[in-house]
Amino acid sequence: MQAKWVCALLTLGIGATAVGLPPYPPPTLAGTVVRVLDAVTLEVRLTRLPTPAPAGLVVGTVVPVRYLGLGTSEASREAASLSALLVGGREVYLELDGQERDGQGNLLAYVYLDPEGRLMVNVALLTTGLFTASPSPGLRYAAALAHAAAMPAPSPGCPSPVPWAEARGQIGKTLCVEGPVASVGTSAGGDVFLNLGRAYPDPGRFTLYIPARHVGKFEAAFGTRFWTRLVGKTVQATGEIRLYQGVPEIQLGDPSALFVKP
User: Fold this and answer.
1) What CATH code is assigned to 3-150?
2) How far is CA 95 from CA 30, 107, 112, 171, in A?
3) CB of 179 within 8 A of CB of 196?
4) Which of 6, 16, 33, 232 has the least C-beta neighbours within 10 A?
5) What is the pLDDT of residues 3-47, one digit of tens each?
6) Domain 162-260 sits in which CATH superfamily?
């Protein structure tokens, strides 16, 4: 999963959340996600409860929480990865509806990323096409969930990328370049290099250069030492094409400028 992809779905989710939501007060139930069990179920350590608290809930305990109104398509592994990227390890804010638990004992909740209750994860996830809406009669946000499920999934990456071999002749232009990662490398100072089309040191390669000072941001978005897993994968990168020692390259400083095709 990529930072750009997540930003796109959250943008769609914000728009969908604005449809049909009555002005309910901010959620008073909060906790920290300690584990994502599957695409629609989380384990949350409770940190704040309303007064009076729902039956069986105690601050400090870990409870299973299921996204209210969501199901999954067959791509459940990818859906679970996306859910983990959005909420894993984060403080979340929970709003309950008429039915507090399902038949398995999971707490049924609308899950928010902000204490004001403006960004609902349930709605954002529905915009991806990886989840299905499974609303029950009388759900408070049935209209918003239905609207989100009907929205087209975000399209990550570039609509018309330039093949890496053609980009070699576009020095000075800012373009989205696509190509297979033939090799990767790092410098003694921690810079990361992704070589497209041909492996280092072939001068016919196209290089994506990530300075050491930015590598941490990319690891936060793509995982620790993400470059070691990219050989053989096709990537897209957006930036100004420069020539360095006869090799064209794009210098990357923002994770949103890099997309790894599935």
Assistant:
1) 2.40.50.90
2) 9, 10, 8, 52
3) yes
4) 232
5) 444 554 554 454 545 444 555 789 999 999 999 999 899 999 999
6) Nucleic acid-binding proteins (2.40.50.140)
